# Entry
Amino acid sequence: MEIAHLVVSICGVIVTGVFSYFIWQANKQSANAAEGATRAAEESASISKMMLEMQEEQKQNIRQQLKRDVIKQINAIERNLSNMLSTQKYSEIMSRLPEEINITNLELANYFLEEEIAIIYKTRSTYETYRNDYFKNDIPSFSMDEKFIHDNKTVLELTRDVIIALTIHG
# Structure
């Protein structure tokens, strides 16, 4: 009977060893899978970060282009109004003024800072009023009076404020 106990004990040890080996292999594979999942998650996070950086860079590029466009339009208004106040060719210079400051409210909201939005919007609204007051059918129609001179100076000051605001905030 001792031999039977010995055989049963040896079989128990062998079975335990085999099961331990299989459990070790399963744990090893789980660890490898977890390591792979961790690498995949890290790569996914890295890709997400790169995409976010690319989107932010694209947004900054669009912002810079829109700022250049607005500054170009504002400069045209500022330059012409400055020249008009120093010459006698009022109608000729006024006919060179752009019809509008071309930027949408959506572009303002998406790409500009609050203080930039406020000054651009105020300038655009004031300029639209100026155009409505002093142009009829896109032809300059005004009399050189105090109101006209005041309105010119107001638009001129606002255009300069926009240029300052857009150049300060980079």
